[in-house]
Known about the structure:
glycerate kinase, domain 1; 6-stranded parallel beta sheet; 6-stranded mixed beta sheet; 2 domains; 37% helix
Amino acid sequence: MIIKNKDTVATTKLRKQALDIIEAGITRVLPPNIMKSAVRYDTAGRILTINGDTYRLSTGRVFVIGGGKASGLMAETLENIIHPENISAGVVNCKSGYYKTNKIKIIPAGHPLPDRRGIEGVKKILALREHYSINENDLVICLISGGGSALMPYPVDEVSLRDKQIITELLLSSGAEIDEINAVRKHLSQIKGGWLGHFYSPATVVSLILSDVIGNNLAAIASGPTFPDPTTFSDAYNVLKRYDLLAKAPKSVTDFLRKGCQGEVAETPKTLNNCHNYIIGDNRLALEAMLQKANEMGLKPYIVTAEQKGDTTAVAHSRAREILNLRYAGYDAILIGGETTPKLPVTAGRGGRNQHYAAVSMLAMKQYAGQWVVASVGTDGSDFLPDVAGAIVDNNSLDIAKAKGIDVQSYLERYDSNTLLDKIGGSLVITGDTGTNVGDVIIYLLK
């Protein structure tokens, strides 16, 4: 069971159905389920097949690198497919090290803020090339998933880890979209924006990717370590300018970006002939599994989009208006995927975008004439707070809050959704680290 506290939050039939549907979605995008259908290895012929493409290893060796919230379970699954004896060595950075691997070292690192453990893990990844004299005959398999930007930190020499942490915090709370945040990250890194793939040239680099990025933009997932970077130093500098961060950003960051804009620093790679990138799982795959589960329950489901984005508060109100205005008339299970972006006040409380989305929905849906449930959950199991995946609310939640004397609006204004939902009770969804990450999934059940 993925949702560990289902017994305490599935207090009605509708709530249980919503959580069962979400579990079906997350289960579908777990690395063992995805990779076993996407990756094949012929031991006798030493042939690796990925989504129909073949890579023949006549005399070469196999190495495994990468990082992201799902990279640990991806590494464990890959060893089961290829078998450890066919892998020379490997290192991946993940949020935790609790995975069973023989040849691939799992390095736990920090997320959402990069930390020293992540840097040490990247150093081990880079050290493989010289230690094993990796060459053009070898194959480097790179396991990438959402969260890789923070979990694989290796800032340029001019920017300290602390300054990288500061600019990351500023960007995450600014309301900037993920591709904008990653444009900055790539230009402050020695491995992002294609540099990791470039580093391993002339070896062939094959990346297996779980996407948490809307539109599956390969340049944005984990900041595109093995994909040519279309953004420039000017793009990165303009992100800071657009969100009024130039005065707040560490001087080392703005100075380095300015040098890049003036051509004093090499741009990120714009071509990478040795790299091949494969998206093997994404949000849409989770939504399709949720659709199938809802159909099996006798519901009438509808997938609105796998690319929801925008300000969390505004989007939650917009979806509620669509439902109240009968835009989805005839359907009783409304399915949505993507990632919204909250713009936090200076004195924000505890919470995450999924908890905030659910909390806002309590007010936004209060005029619905019937029973309803809204559940919003991060497929990785961490809604900014590491111990909460998201939240579930229904038509009774606001009444419970009022009965307890809770001023819901005041909590929403200071983005303190975790405290709010904890006080209401039966609202916080707990999964723990799921081992995957394809963004968020949201379900509205209507009766």
